[in-house]
Each structure stands twice: as structure tokens, then as C-alpha cells.
Amino acid sequence: MDINYSGVPAKGQASLLKKDKKVNTMSFKKIIYSQKVAPYVFVVPFILSFFFFWVYPLITAVTMSFQDIGAINSEWIGFANYAKLLKDNVFHIAVFNSVKYMFFTLVLLIPFPMLFAVLMDSHLVKAKGVWKAVLYMPALTSVVISGTLFRLMFTEYTTGQMNIISSFLGLGTYKWLKMGWSGMLALLIVACWRWTGVNMLYFLSGLKSIDSSLYEAADIDGASGWQKFRFVTLPLLKPTTVYVLTISVYAGLSMFLESYMLWAGNSSPNNIGLTIVGYLYKRGIEKNDMGYACAVGVVLLVVALIINFAQLIFNGTFKKEVE
Amino acid sequence: MAKQKTMASTPQRRVGTVLGTGFFLILSLIIVFPVFAGLLASFRPGTQLIRRGLSIDLNIKTMNLDNYVYLFSGNADSQKYFMWYKNSLIITIVSVVLTLLICYFVAYGLTMYDFRFKNLLFTIVLATMMVPFEILMLPLYKEIIAFKLIDTYTGVIIIGLCGASTIFFFKQYLSGLPKDLLDAARIDGCNEYSISVRIILPLAKPAFASMGILCAMGSWNAILWPLLVLKGAEKFTLPIGLNTLLTPYGNNYDVLIAGSMFGILPILVIFLIFNRYIIDGMTAGAVKG
């Protein structure tokens, strides 16, 4: 058979290259090759990666948040970083921006993609493959590229697209990226542009898994289109909705690059585009105050976990697992 | 879908089809618009971008290929651009190959065997997805410095090799394969590792295709972590390199806009060829929830 061995992870498998049959000659080999041990060999890379690149940094992030990290010495300062966060107005702006952004992305990027998916799934749409591919396309482009394109579209000059559109609608022209509301609007437009298609595809695959006989049964009972959506589609789509909700909460709260690209850097006028991660980056990387930045990260983690657990409990996800 | 296929084609239905299809046509035009405007802008001098923003102007007389000629001219800017391009290609290819193989074997171990810590490990895989990367970013950065991997490709690649979502997807896929195959192979004298490589891996090719494309996209477009790890301009990946061209003076916008458009190309080509696999791979996690 035509197989490529070259990339096999090296853990105890190198000998596989040479001999397959002479296994029972050596006892060490025998152990490694036994059915009891093999699964552990397979999962070793994950365990290593888990400890080095997840457990350790997570613990470090928490401990660093209680320290004043200097170039040489680090000093344990208890809750001082957190006390400082409570009084830090810029941090409050960042939290407010991130939560606001997350909230609006949920409002915009769950119901509409769901409706688009229902429409796409109906017999009313032709050439489905084309639309699906086009709507997915923004997710392919790097934030660097799409952010730059949108930054140019939101230019304050009257020749920019957004100003042409808004003046066409009789709304006049704006300095989009210099005011709070329009800055947030720009971020949300970028988010909608990038994620509408992706979320629609999630819902579409959820719809595909719904048994079509349920709709036939509903037809026999004389259900209207709305009733079918409300009592068949919506409840059966729930696992997909919960999934999209969960990832959207994380994506919304930890948004950074969109803002970074839209304002060509991590500073926006009056911090209108500053997010929690943006502040973490500013403090940790730009100002090299790692301890304080880690406290920002811990707050982000706690906020994200609380919102998601609340959402999952509300949606009854944990109950289902117990059954 | 199959809901009302028997219904005869009525005028109302035809109107519905026009409206439904028309809706997605308009939506698609809106989605394509920024990229199309960017493409048009790439045929005009970069100074226009600074002065006028991204504006749509279909006048073909004012368009030319100067930016692309400059990009491919082989001068200093052009060399820099293609160095970034090459770096991105290397990082993408290496990380995709390694990530797929490692995640495949991990998922294989978690799916094909019953062992003591199996459920615990799988729970851990899912739990790692619950923590946003940005929180781990600073400690990871310190760790990479301590390992002396700063400013190396290894430092960029190593932290993502065991992507939880990739493992999860492979596990979903492998769960669908009959385990009898393993016993049959064992009876034939195949050892545990040969089975995973010779028997099951060929069967998992569609999963490799789906995940390969998603990993490639992620890696090609990654910016946050490479931005931290890579310090020297000769190591930059394409997104980071393009980002350095975004100066307030805009003297590099010729390269920036043409380079951005040319940077979308590889991913776009892969997408157009494999788009079915991408959608399969991306949505696999969402259905079972």
C-alpha cells in the first residue's frame, strides 16, 4: 500500500518503519505494542501539549495576576492588581465595549443567519451552492485584509463608501471611526460581514439533521408555515443554536483584531474601539506590565465562563448530559 | 428540502423562487462588495486610497496594472513581499501536516480503545475549548521566550499542534467507522500502530481533507500569535508583513492593496476546489452539540 510514514509522531513508533512482525522478541517492545499501552502512546502528544500549553499557562496567568512582574524580580502583591482594575476607567471602557459588542453580535448573528438558513433550506432558492460559497468567503480572508478594506470604506472623506451610502440615504456624512456609536457600528458591520455566512452554514447543517417526516406530519395536522417553524424547526435546532451561542459569546468577548485593524493599531480616539483583549495587549505587550495584564485576562475568563454557564444552564444543556 | 416536492409549479411558487433567489443574490453582492472594491482599488495608485478611501469607480481608463507590476518587479519591496509569502507558506504547510497527524492519532487513541482515563481525557479536550486563547497568550509568550523559541517558526507552530476542535472532529469521524476492522486486522497479525496507519488512516481521508483546509486557512490568516513570536522582518508571515505596511503616511499602499488581493488568492483557490469538505468540517461540531 502507498502510505507515507514520514510524519508519524515518534513516540515509540519509529520501529514500525522496519519490522512489523518481530514484535515479541523484546519485552519493552512487547509492552509498547500491547493493546493496553497503545492508547496511552496515541494520546501522549495531547497530554504533553495540555500541560505545557494549557495547564501551565493558565496557572501562570492566575498567579501572575497577583504579582508585580518586573524584568528580574517579581513581587507578590495580593489583590492589588484587581483593586487597581476596579478603579481603572480605561478598563471599564474596554469591558463595556466588549460586552456591548458581544451583545449586539448575538442579536445580529443568531436570528438572521437562522432565518437565512431556513430560507436557503426551502425550495424557494435556486443555485444554493453558489450563495453558500459566496457567503462563506469573508471567513477566508485574513482580518488584516478585511480590516484594511473596511477601514478604507469607513474613511471620513466624502468619497468613501459609507459616506456615499449615508449621504444617498439623506443622513449626511460622518467621521465614522471617530465617534463612539459609529465606531461600534463599524465593528458590528465587519462582524456581520465576516460571520453571517458561517453561522448560516451552522444552522443549515442543523436543519439537515431534522427528520423531514416531522414536517409531513405537521402538514397533515394542518400546521401553518409559522407553526412549523415555531414548533418543529426551532426546538429541533436548539443544539445548533446553543453551540453558535456559546462560540459567539467567546468570540464577542475576546474580539481584538477587528478593532486593531479598523483603527490601524491599538489606540482609537477616546478608546471607542478598545476591547478587553486590546487592553490586555496594551498593558502586557506594549507597556510590559504582565501582572496587571494577566489580571485583565482572568477577569475576561471569569466573565466568559459566567455568561456561558448561565446560558448553558438556562438552555438545559447540562440536564441532557445527565440522562 | 423534500418538504413539498410534489407541489405543482404554480405562478405563486415561481414568484417565491424569484424572491428567495433574489434575496440571496442581493446578500451575496453586499458580501462581495468590499473585496470587489479592493480589487478595483488595486488597479489604481495607492495615493488615491489615502485621499479618497476605498471607492468604487468603474472607469477602466484610470485603471492600470502598475501595482502588480511593481509587486512582481523583483525590487526590494517585491522581494520583501515574497519572503513573507514564502514564510507563510512554510508555516502553513508544516503546521497543517503536523497538526493533522498528531490530532488524528490522538483522536484514534480516544476513539478506538477503552482505557481508564478515556472519558476524563475527552472531557479535558472539550474543556480546553472553554478558555479563550487570549488569556493564555501572555504566559505562553513568556514560556516561548524561556524555551528560546522566540522569533522561530517552531515557536509559532508548536502551541497549536493539538487543536481541541481538530481532535474533536477526527473523533466524531472515527466514531462512525466500524471497530470490527481493528479486530480483523489484529487477527491478521497487524500491530496496533500499523492498524492506525494502514487500515484506518486511508478510511479517514475525507476527514483529513476537511480539517486540512480549515487548519490551512487558520494558519495562513493567523496574526495575533505570530505577531508576538516573530520579531525580525525576515521572519514575518504575510498578514504581519502587510500589517507593517499600514503606516499613517500610506507610502506603501501600492504594495499593500495589490499584495492583499494576491494574498487572498491561495486560500480562495483551495476553497473553490474543496468547498464541500470545508462546510462538512466546519459544521461537524454543531449538529450533535
Number of E-state strands of chain B: 0
Strand order of the largest sheet of chain A: 1-2
Helix share bin of chain B: over 70%
Number of domains of chain B: 2
Main sheet properties of chain A: 2 strands, antiparallel
The CATH superfamily of the largest domain in chain A is known as MetI-like
Assembly form of the protein: heterodimer
Total helical segments of chain A: 16
Count, helices of chain B: 14
Rg of chain A, nearest Å: 26 Å
| Beta-strand share of residues of chain A | under 5%
* CATH-defined architecture of the largest domain in chain B: Orthogonal Bundle
Shape of chain A: globular
Number of strands of chain A: 2
* Major β-sheet annotation of chain B: none
Indicate the mean pLDDT of chain B.
85
- Which overall shape of chain B is indicated by the principal axes computed on the Cα atoms? globular
Which structural class best describes the helix and strand composition of chain A? mainly alpha
